[in-house]
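Take one protein record:
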Amino acid sequence: MNNWQAVGALFGVQTGGFSGVGGNMALGGGDPITQYRTAQSMKDRQMEMVRQDPMVKRDIAEFDKALENAETPEDLLKNRRSMEFLLRGLGMADQIGNDALIRKSLLEDPTKQDALVNRLQDKRYKEGAEMFRFAELGLEAVRNEEFKTKFTESYVQQRYEEKLAETNPAIPDAMAFERIVKDSKKDLTNPYNVLGDPLLRRVVTTALDLPKQIAVQSVEAQARAVTTRMDLNDLKDPDYVDKFVQRFLMNDTRGGQQGGMGGLGGGGGNGAWQTNLLSGLSGGGGGGFGGGGFGGGGSGILV
């Protein structure tokens, strides 16, 4: 029995191996709420195993080397593995492969009104551009040691959530939602901020049992659909949040699709870890939502 299996046995669940960030992080049978509680109880141990996994260590070392050798942000983004590392740390693993869009959006100055990120529905691109500040600072922000440490931890968190998503993608979503509500500096009483974030949108609309087809409606109509079904101020109440998360877990239909998110973990959580990152170096988040419908997508950013 390896260490990963030993942890599973300790909590009465069966697990696969974790070598090479492989295997399946099984949470046992039962309802999704029980699975969620199991994941919460095992998180610290499992996160440490992800942190110590040889593949994860290799990815971190390769990124550090690429960052050291790069002379410009363009150099860093030309390195495919470095780009994937950055995307995972941002909780944007589902965007891997959109190389041209990624380079253009991250290298532009997000403060310019005509910047691409200000026209994209997916506000994670803008948050990434504001965080890295490549156009303004080159590689200075991402080379800051405090930033690198926290961003690397975000990468580890994302890899952990990818494994959880293989068993039930709702579990990492629920974990991330609770983190955001607890720690985010976004105004979550504003329905446009909620709907403009892919993870928040997914959890809230699922918990409220709103159909996916709502995305074809106007932004205002979507906001009304949320605010007539809940008081967003209630998200300040931990007891309410706990019940809301349970409702999301029971309404989500993805749990029976074992491995449905695959190795990319599209159901990973969006958090607000950037709000704790170098207030002097990172940007202020994506702000409100402007534009038509809302994207799906996953995100999993560490708090």
